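Field reference: sequence -> structure
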Amino acid sequence: MGFFGAARQVRKDDAELGKGLWRRAHDRFKRGLDRYHQILEGVDDEDLYAELLEIANELSALAVTVRRICVEAQRRSPSNGLDIPGALAGVHRSLSMAGNSLATTAEAAAMLRLGIAPASAGAVSVRRRAESVVEQVNDAERRLAEDAAGERDPGERDSG
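Structure field:
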């Protein structure tokens, strides 16, 4: 993406994600994903690379979901600061945990790449951490859907 493409993307992100909480959650996830891919580039072992690449593809697919969640959260509860909106606090918590888990996933991949972690187990530790990322993104999506259902029928929210 050239300079003008990047500038257009920043304007689009500002419009869709705002400049606050939801933008930060989105950007943190994106940075974690970029870091994971940077680590992947340095893996020499072909079998390990194939395992880590499969995980990378699964995590990359989540980026679309994370963006969709953040865009919808920004639409419902606009944020230009760091205040967490009460109704969507669970969504933010799940996205924040997903960003943290993605960072530890990249860290586990780096340890494998550098030979610090035992390679005999393959990418088991990386896979386990990536599964946490998937669960947390799914939880954020579920919480956002529950909030939407609660907006349509406030009486249902109190009965749960």
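Note: Confidence is low (pLDDT under 50) at residues 155-160.
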